[in-house]
Design a protein that fits this description.
Helix content: over 70%
Distance between the termini: 22 Å
Radius of gyration: 19 Å
Number of helices: 14
Number of strands: 0
Oligomer: single chain
């Protein structure tokens, strides 16, 4: 069960690796308008399930702390993410914001029943090096003039790592609640759009398809998969595997002509893959032992 849940959680990381590609293909829609539409689309699968199985509506009755955690996690992360990118250069903002996998790995030691091992830390650091190679390919230069953006990016990292770790403590809460989180995030994003942005609609069918893809996968199904994964899977391994997202994202951009190949990408792949294998050492070893044991 734990391996299956970890793989489901990893599917969220694979879907998040499509975020940059779909966003690049979605046209010039402003971010909060895009989030409004995408999170509304992302809530549809859950709404369909609830419509077909209305008895599951009872699962949405949860303590306030569950709803506060979920809405603060999804909306808070994206609000801080866009605030960071509007107030700091994208490379530096991305580098700081993507500290959340390392924070998950380290913070997991505080969870009941979890124990942080040296290979979790080493694997996370290896993944961090790979991520830095990707996001800093055009150089990094921190400037105090962008302190607001840097601060928002750091809060962004703490927000998503805290959401993931706290969600682990709500393991008895059904993943159905993610439907409500998505709807609330869509509504709050709509308020931000009205207050801060000018409406811009996609101009082509291709752009609309990219928006639909965002809503169905990286800003939709990924959150359901992540919720199930962090509640039931190996959260340290998921934290390390999360560093694969920027590498896979860059590979997707390469594949579709939005980026150019470089030695940094190849080296980043080695660091991320090596870190993931190291972090999964204990799980891989246990699986081999189980296979090697003769049947009674």
């Amino acid at each position: 069960m734990k391996l299956k849940a970890t793989l489901i959680g990893f599917s969220a990381i694979l879907m998040w690796s499509l975020l940059a590609l779909f966003t690049a293909a979605s046209g010039k829609m402003p971010p909060f308008q895009l989030l409004t539409i995408c999170f509304l689309i992302g809530s549809l699968p859950g709404l369909v399930v609830l419509a077909l199985r209305p008895e599951r509506l009872a699962l949405l009755k949860q303590p306030a702390k569950v709803w506060i955690t979920g809405i603060a996690g999804l909306f808070g992360y994206h609000f801080l993410y866009f605030t960071a990118f509007r107030n700091a250069p994208p490379v530096e903002a991305g580098l700081i914001a993507y500290l959340w996998p390392l924070l998950i790995v380290v913070g997991s030691a505080l969870l009941p029943g979890e124990r942080l091992r040296w290979y979790h830390i080493a694997g996370a650091l290896s993944g961090l090096v790979g991520m830095i190679l990707i996001v800093s390919r055009k150089g990094v230069a921190f400037d105090e003039a962008y302190l607001i953006g840097y601060g928002a990016a750091l809060l962004c990292a703490f927000t998503w790592s805290a959401y993931s770790l706290i969600t682990r403590r709500f393991e008895a809460v059904s993943t159905d609640v993610v439907t409500g989180f998505c709807l609330a995030t869509s509504l709050l994003s709509f308020v931000c759009h009205l207050a801060l942005e000018t409406t811009v609609w996609p101009q082509t069918t291709f752009e609309w398809l990219a928006v639909a893809g965002l809503g169905l996968l990286p800003l939709g199904a990924a959150f359901y998969a992540w919720d199930f994964g962090v509640k039931n899977g190996n959260i340290q391994l998921l934290g390390v595997l999360s560093y694969a997202a920027p590498v896979l994202s860059t590979l997707n951009l390469l594949l579709f002509g939005f980026a150019e190949p470089s030695w940094r990408i190849a080296l980043a792949c080695l660091f991320v893959t090596g870190g993931a294998v190291l972090a999964a050492k204990n799980m891989i070893f246990r699986q081999r032992v189980a296979v090697a044991q003769p049947a009674e």
